[in-house]
Amino acid sequence: MYSGPHATALASARSALPSLWPAFALCLSMAVANGLGRFAYALLLPAMREDLLWNYAQAGWLNTANALGYVLGAASAYALLHRVSARRLFQVGLGLCLFTLAATGASGALPWLSSQRALNGIGAAWVSACGSTLVLLHYRHAPTRRGAATGLFFGGAGIGIVAAGLAVAPLLALRGPSAWPQAWMALGAVGLLASLWPLRLAGQVQEAAATAEADRSGPLPLRHLGACLAAYFCWAGGYIIYLTFIFAWLREHGLSWQSGVAVWSVLGIAILGSGLLWRRALAHWPGAYTLSVCCAISLLGTLAPLLGSTSSLFISAAVFGSSVFIAAAAIAVLVRQNLPAARIGRAMALFNLAFAAGQAIGPVAAGAIADRIGLDGALWLSAALHLAAVLLPWTARAPRHAA
Q: From which residue to which does any coiled coil extend (predicted)?
């Protein structure tokens, strides 16, 4: 064990680092917005499809409705952040996510379900864009912590995924497909508990004065960032296909609901821990490079069930989960490396818009393919989109400089 002045200096430096607890608190908002609001639908999809007599295209449409809401939320965030603070929009978005989680199960009518999924998407877009902005602002003077904090924030979806698996799968297994409305209510209750801390903390984050004012500094530098914008679009379409249909693929191949919960839990735990695994890359690599590498690893996770046996689903979930949300964290790092603080909020909203568009197209296109040639075809589409996301950042990488 080290001792003496060097050890004392090292201990002092470590103690001076800001705590990661604020990032953890804010990551709970991603557990609600993404883990419960978006990805838990994969667990309910087989039950709702059976009880409501849907085909795969109809089932995929509900995630597309959610994604279209996300498009609207991302576009409105881009406009609203001229006038509204990021923390206020974050709080409203999280409240909207909570309301729609509980309200989704009130009716089985497709128009009602579509409207609730769309409203949930609007709230999730506000939470993602503004929450990531709050994290970047909170750690703006701590570059050595910024990567870990950003990865932890986006990895919060893993908490929601695990919580959804434990709450929803046993309920549907015991009470049958007709219990899907109660499953949505359960998700709402879990979401309420998870939202208390981030809602409180968001009001305490001090935003830079420049971010509260309208951004009048001209258009964003898309000549440098455009390739990553396109990659983010492709990644969004690819990852949401996997998370929408992987549970249905598992059920179609005869695995039990207990195995499904286990796979789902592995996925959630891997997502939650991904920020720590990638903390060095997020702290030191250029954002474009991190984006490409993490998409390559997600691609391997997508291919695992297609090229192996059903037992490879556990490997797939671990590999996919350990990398998939690092793409969003890499975008946040890219923005922070290339733009001043006053422009972070709107830039994140713009990237969220590209993400939302890709995620809107993915599920309905994959559902149509699944109806024609089976769920393997949907996963192959996911793999192709991941491959595009791997290659695009290398065509025009953004120059790295500190903001």
A: none
Find, among 244, 234, 235, 33, the residue nearest to 125 by Cα: 33
CA neighbor of 385 nearest in space, from 232, 274, 275: 232
Specify the higher pLDDT residue, 320 or 312: 320
Cβ(43)–Cβ(168) below 8 Å: yes
Q: Which of 295, 316, 293 is nearest to 304 (CA)?
A: 316
Residues in the chain, total = 403
Q: Taking a C-beta distance cutoff of 8 angstroms, is the pair 149, 135 a contact?
A: yes
Residue that wins the pLDDT comparison between 148 and 214: 148
In angstroms, the CA 348 to CA 230 distance is: 14
Sorted by where each starts, the structural domains of the chain and their CATH numbers stand as 23-213+221-394 (1.20.1250.20)
CA distance 310 to 319: 15
Query: Which two tokens mark 206?
Result: 């001090």
- CB within 8 Å of 64: residues ≥ 6 apart: 360, 361, 363, 364
Residue 401 predicted with pLDDT over 60:
no
Contacts (Cβ under 8 Å, ≥6 apart) of 9: none
Token representation of residue 15: 């103690």
261: Cβ–Cβ under 8 A, 6 or more apart, which residues? 165, 166, 169, 170
For residues 32 and 140, is the Cβ–Cβ distance under 8 A? no
Tokens standing for 131?
Answer: 């929450």
What is the distance between the alpha carbons of residues 87 and 249, in angstroms, rounded to a whole number? Answer: 39
